[in-house]
Target: Alpha 1,4-glycosyltransferase domain-containing protein
Amino acid sequence: MLNCKVFGQTIKSPIFSTLSFVLIVFVIYACSSIYKVSLYPSQLTSIQIRAPQQAAHNNDVQAAANKTLQVQATSPPLKVDQSSIIVVSNNLTEQINIEELEEEEQDGEAPDPLIPPAKVTNEERMEWFRKKLPDLEVLKSTNLSRSFHDRVVKFSKNQCATQFFMIWFSPARTFGPRDFLAVDTLMKANPQSCLVLISRSLDTRRGYKILKPLLDRGFKILTVTPDLPSLVKDTPAEAWLKKIKNGKIDPGKNPLSIHLSDLIRLAVLYKYGGVYLDTDFVILKDFKGLRNAIGAQGVDQVTHKWTTLNGAAMVFDKRHPILFDFLQEFTTTFDGSKWGHNGPYLLTRVIQRVGNTPGYNLTILGLKAFYPVNWIQINGFYKKPVSEEESKWVEETVLELNKETYGLHLWNKITRELVVNEGSVIDRLIKSHCLICRDAYNS
Model:
């Protein structure tokens, strides 16, 4: 039996008091440690998240909805919804846009798969290209791109006064103010028109945010991922695509994106009809009344007859026979190493050869329609007038352009870095023809 008197004396002893204190401290430490481990695991946990798929719709496509993302987190709580991923880590909450995360990965320092390596032999370039083929999504039909035709057809039923097309192959983050300017001025000059912006990178939430100022004003703009196989189906270019996908055609020294842009603009006009425009224009006039027309870029100074055409602006009816001839020429004479061979020079070759064929009813517009100034002289359009004579020249030039030019081609590869000086021709045109009129058109 327990002797209470002895026990009472024991608990009062110094030894027992010490042991009791140690035991209490140990219990508190153990409980605290267990609690801390549950909140702050000592090792990072790799958590695999599959974002739920959401139906695609105009200007806001869940392009990466099925993409598996690897997220490194230091605590388990994670929440996923249809528009974003919420990551809670060390008491910090981060909201990651799925499409933008995917784009940042694509827009990183990895080499562009459409740009061939420099200073290699034809054989070495072909070897490189065949290895890259599995990564070239632009040549294939994907879950996203297969909806291209249905989306374009549905969009074109929006009572479009004119159907416009543009192409953007670069990352969305590089679609800057001067590229936006083309869309901005187009919608002001042609407010009842529809614009299809063919672009994988802009067919995202980021693209929607870029165009939102115009969409909020009710303008009809669709960004859509291209489907090259369906675009060239039942055209002469179908054979070219098959060969390039099989690695039997040398893509050439120039970026493949340039050639694909040349091809897609022809195929889109052939399949749907309308107006194609590059993204380096200031649009000045309504395009109503233009039909089966293309602009001259060069004119003989003696005969005043056109010498070179340019496909930066084209207007054609659906299934126009000259477009079939363009696609045939692209397929049979493709050369990826000669600048302009598959673009402006192709159009020039074909129209010089078949332009007078009965039934084609082509209109070759003069220089003033789209190319009133060439890439050598356009620098002067950006300069601020510093004398009365120069101010008079600016005034006369602006008046003439507003009267006779549908859209001024800006030759962005040459002029992108030029400053738009106050009072210059370009400054005057932007201020009188833009809607959003951003102050950042110099960036």
Notes: Residues 122-371 form a domain with the Spore Coat Polysaccharide Biosynthesis Protein SpsA; Chain A fold (CATH 3.90.550). The CA atoms of residues 82 and 373 lie 49 Å apart. The chain has 16 helices and 14 strands.
